[in-house]
Amino acid sequence: MTTRNDPSPAAVSVPPASPAHVTGGPAVQLPTAFGYFTARAWTDSATGVEHLSITSPVRPDTAPLVRLHSECLTGDVFASFRCDCGEQLDQALALIAEQGGTVLYLRGQEGRGIGLANKIRAYALQEDGADTVEANEQLGLPVDARDYSAAASILHTMGLDTIRLLSNNPAKSSTLSSYGISVVEMISSEVPSREQNLRYLQTKRDRMDHRLALLEDHPVHQS
Ligand SMILES: [Zn+2]
């Protein structure tokens, strides 16, 4: 008797290289200015980093809308216009309250994973003329150090294996797919640009392959 695994391509999905082990806490009510959500805290056992899921009930006929939102203290809390994070988070909460789904708020991902102090150092270099990619490179830091293994494990644990992803970043979608999350649609999370974040957004579009259709090519004033 021979047992064999059928390697038919349609049946094969790439297994996650090293899925994170996450522990979820209790679900609690979270009434907000955007609507009523359920919140759960999650701890990545390997790193100790704590994440938060904010969930609104999903309609039975649609895949849940999911936003993986990387923590950005300056944008999310202080409403900085140097980036688009705060407005993207507001947009995500409003859309998810309306359509159902989850915002996964990923902590430890400040400045695409380089940390708050390094992000502010990168801002200083940007004020001297570097773009967001060059600034990280000048600091000897990765351009994008984010790891989505914990996010994928949280999505699996929540039963969010098939999602509509609210993002402009195709790399996020393909990374989730490599962890076995099926992204059936990407929904734009683009918010209108501002004078203060135009160069940052143009760099994300031109050097990091973000889909930013609304962005126009006005020349950027160097400060
Ligand atoms: Zn930001």
Q: Give the SSE string.
A: EEEEEHHEHHHHEHEH
> What number is the mean pLDDT?
86
Low-confidence stretches: 1-16
Query: Tell me about the biggest sheet?
Result: 8 strands, mixed
Helix content: 25-40%
Please name the defining characteristics of this protein.
alpha/beta; 223 residues; 8 strands; disordered N terminus; 32% helix; eight-stranded mixed β-sheet; Rossmann fold; binds zinc ion
Topology diagram in text:
Blueprint: E1 22-24, E2 28-32, E3 35-44, E4 50-56, E5 65-70, H1 73-77, H2 85-99, E6 101-106, H3 110-113, H4 116-127, H5 132-138, H6 149-157, E7 162-166, H7 170-178, E8 182-187, H8 198-208
Parallel strand pairs: 5-6, 5-7, 7-8
Antiparallel strand pairs: 1-3, 2-3, 3-4, 4-6
Helix pairs in contact: 4-5
The structure holds zinc ion.
In brief:
Helices cover 32% and strands 22% of the residues. With 223 residues, it is of the alpha/beta class. It has a domain at 23-109 and 146-208: GTP cyclohydrolase II (Rossmann fold).
